[in-house]
Amino acid sequence: MTRYVLDVVTERCTGCMKCVYACSWVKDRVLDPDHARIKIVSKGGIVLDVTLCRHCNPAPCVEVCEFDALRVKEDGTVVLDENRCTDCKACRSVCPFGAITDSGGGMLIKCDLCGGDPECVKVCPHNALIFRPVVSQYPNIGGKSVHSVRELLEAKER
Q: Which helix (H) or strand (E) segment is 7 a member of?
């Protein structure tokens, strides 16, 4: 089965927050950034980072959870079972991307890729979010091996 990941081209992100609000609406039926599984970090109108789950393999959050609240699905998506989560925050402390957050209601949340059809990707007007299959190496474009999303996009624009 092909694994998919959500990539971000930060330079394309304008901080419009459409992805954040779409996520919070789809997941919790509220328009509240605290309920979004994707976070935009900006200062003075400049986007510094977009934080989201990278569905690590292996996933340190899954390994540290003593309550089996986190698991890796067959497709590689790391999912959180809110019914099993005790809110101990062990997973949050080991996440290298800061992608496991508190919803403000005392429950931890994280991206589950919307079951394979991420709403954030659909609403991003600047194509800053890319849902792509995980490959060991990007294709060879113009005789040059491409190893990152940025290189891939730059090569396609030429």
A: strand 4-8
